[in-house]
Amino acid sequence: MDTISILIVDDHTLFRRGIRKMLEAEEDMEVVGEASNGREALRFARERMPDVILMDIQMPDMDGIEATRLIHTEMPHVGIVFVTMYENDEYVFRGIQAGGRGYILKDANPETMLRAIRAVANGESLLGPTIALKVMRQFAGMEKAPAGVMDTLTPRETEVLQRIAEGMSNKEIASSLLISEKTVKNHINNILSKLHLYDRTQATIYAIRKGIVKI
To answer: Which residue has the higher pLDDT, 155 or 123?
Structure first.
């Protein structure tokens, strides 16, 4: 039986220790390190090449989404599972677009976490039940978007939409396009209006379905 090597990333020491104790009780799992922020996670990932990383989102000195984006770009074979208390749409879809292959909540039962680790280590994806339902609802909502409206976007609006779908924040979009955050917000409002969408999460789903970006 192959052993799954795991890196735990969370800024709460007690949470890391609790997860470590649970994982070390599993015969097919080995914890190879702990990190308290995204920057440490990147360094440990380079040094120890874990099979799976359990990644928190909100952490000091580089958050989990940015760390995931960097790790996924450099080491795409490493499976990343977000383990967080946040289930709002923006975090879910930014996390998935950054390269996360799993997303479960911290109040999930232990079996869900173990199943997610094994699935991701096997090259699959796994979302917690409430997160999966959220994704399905977003896809269902996209059926209402009229066809052909993509042609109404300006080239700059298309660039902004692409960056939204890549998980960038308004500040990151502004920096990449050398425009102000206020201008970014105006573009986003125009995009949502033209595409008949409610929020940037639906915009992300729309962009994925139209092939503007790929997961």
So the answer is: 155
